[in-house]
Amino acid sequence: MFIDNTETVLQFLPIDRELIFREDSDNLLVFKSIAIALNKKPNNHYDRCCLKLHISDEQYQNILNNQLFNLKKDALIPIKEGQFKPGLNLDLVIELRPDLLSQFSECQTNDAIIDHLNTAPANTDSDQQLNYTENWYCLIVEQQQETDVIRYRTVWDYLKLSAAFNTLNGASEILQSLSNFLKETFNQIETDEIENDHSNGQISLDTNNFIKFLQTIDPDEDSEINQSRSISEVMQEFFSEDDWEFVEMEEESILQMVFEGDHGRWTCFALAIEENRQFVFYSLCPVNTPPEKISAMAQFLTKVNYGTTIGNFELNYSDGEIRYKTSIDVEHERFTTGLVNNLVYINVLTMDKYLPGIMAIINNKLSPDDAIAIAESSASEQE
């Protein structure tokens, strides 16, 4: 079986073995039909370990209800539309936390890895135990039905776990992956649910198991910086006082919200990077640029950026995603809600101003100069 996910194509090899996981020190989960996929670096060290578990519907309901393997029902997004049928078996693809892969350093075969998993002790320090479900992340759930395969992805399949567990270098990749996931998620959720159902955790993500790794750099307790308020605290205060509806993610270090301007509606992210005392705000364009119009869009955004004093547009050449970024570094300064206010509203108003030009390039094949003229004239009409 091949799984084409965010990093590599995984080839699963079946293993005629029984595999035992621990939900906790007392409760065991036994799987009798499994397959394994491993990825090695050039230095012969493992950099990915994924398992495919063939499970009963009863096992799936237990996993879902107890959020085992970090699987949450509200974070599932369909690849192939349809509903799972009760009583039929399913397949789960799960991946091990990358920082635990070093425990396989002496394992040379698939059977050796399964042996290692099955013999791991029931240690109270479950955070480091390979056979505890909390240390595995469900990527895909699928069910073979009579004429089709119904398949769902989770946020973990969008995230590169290696980046998620990289303290210093993963934030940008995580944000990109989350933005892709949330864009597709919003396509599956009715507008009313987006506006009214935040308190019910419609798209909340359980990231507690890896966010601690993003924040392992502790500031000096005696430093002047540490005595000031955290970036996330000020950030959240602004959005609460300004009556924004938002979803907290990653222990409040990322807030996600929806903004509606005169020319469209789009997703926004507010990101607090505490270790560097930085605040970043993104507006994600609701439509990606088609491949054949990437060149024209790049010219348009370059011309727009040339005349922009605060913030800039970014274009992802791989998938055509457009986003507008405003940010600030307050390493030696006091961070206030007033600063957040300026960066947020400059950001969303700029996206709203140039969204007609962006859509004109995508829909009407206008030149970059003509698209800028449309954006400027549209903005003038609003003044």
From TrEMBL:
InterPro entries named among the record's database cross-references: Put_sensory_transdc_reg_YbjN
One matching Pfam family: YbjN
Name this polypeptide is given: YbjN domain-containing protein
Organism of this sequence: Planktothrix agardhii (Oscillatoria agardhii)
